[in-house]
Amino acid sequence: MAKKEEYEAKTEGFLLPLMKENHFELVDVEYVKEAGSWYLRAYIDKEGGITVDDCETISRRLGDWLDEKDFIADSYILEVSSPGLGRPLKKDKDFNRSIGKEVDIKLYKPLNKQKDFTGTLTSYDRETVTITQEDGIELVLNRPEIALIRLAFDF
């Protein structure tokens, strides 16, 4: 197993019982390099939304555990946050949570001379994602052709 997956899996293993205890949901854990720095990020959520205090509580517990176990060789920055707007939908639970919500989709290659689509996520399966556009037209897109799908910003 690659380091990245191992770190994510171990962190997830620690966080899951903590999530249950606090009635939170663990949305995702990612270990990524951005602008030359490693980040270990945990995205958490709960009914009604996560607060800064919730993030702080989990961050403190997770940070203490990580210091104690010390299994990550690189120096890294720990971040605990809510999934937030504009975060990509990756897993089934991300899609489930977003049914009925507006999403932005970017395709790798243009479809009818268009790469960007916005609509209400109506359904999905392993192969496709279905959205209903503002004009009421239903659009079925093949998942391998989707570069990015995320909740739309609604200002």
From TrEMBL:
Entry's family note: Belongs to the RimP family.
Subcellular location field: Cytoplasm
GO BP term (any one): translation
Alphabetic keyword roster: Cytoplasm, Ribosome biogenesis
Functional description taken from the UniProt entry: Required for maturation of 30S ribosomal subunits.
HAMAP family the UniProt entry points to: RimP
Organism encoding this protein: Lacrimispora saccharolytica (strain ATCC 35040 / DSM 2544 / NRCC 2533 / WM1) (Clostridium saccharolyticum)
Residue stretches making up the Ribosome maturation factor RimP N-terminal domain: 17-85
The Ribosome maturation factor RimP C-terminal domain, residue ranges: 89-155
Listed InterPro entries: Ribosome_maturation_RimP, RimP_C, RimP_C_sf, RimP_N, RimP_N_sf
GO cellular component terms given for this protein: cytosol
Principal subcellular localisation of the protein: cytoplasm
Protein name per UniProt: Ribosome maturation factor RimP
